[in-house]
Amino acid sequence: MKEASTFILTHPVEGNVRSNVQVNELEKNTLVFIFQVITDMEKVLKQAPWNFRGCLIVLTPWPDELAFQDLNFEEANFWIQASNIPVKYTNQVTAKTIGNKIGKFLFADIGLEHQKWSKHLIIKVQLSISEPLIQEISHYFSPNHRSTLKI
To answer: What PANTHER family has UniProt attached to this entry (predicted)?
Structure first.
């Protein structure tokens, strides 16, 4: 239980919620966070990924119709930056295509029109945590325009 207490006392999750969070340790390295307010839980999940002492914290909702053994801790959500994208292709379609090449596309932070003139396209993807992270991919922006994108 000492690790659970240390996590809560030193981790920014506590500052991101409006109500109390109950923490129970199920087993070593496995904590259950019980939120009094569902929007607090959604906010914490949306801000993932989290880390503690340099280690990835895999967060997953626990629907009450599932047993603990049925939960999936093999995937986590990550924000990635894709570089070398022509301004013309800085859009949701390109973000979704790139995101699905890397993992499972979740969201792209395209922002306002003037933000297209940026060095990176910011994409949230779900990745398997047992696979190595991809550092670059090849992408065709048009039939004759292939680029290597840095991730």
So the answer is: DUF4283 DOMAIN-CONTAINING PROTEIN, GLYCINE-RICH CELL WALL STRUCTURAL PROTEIN 1.8-LIKE
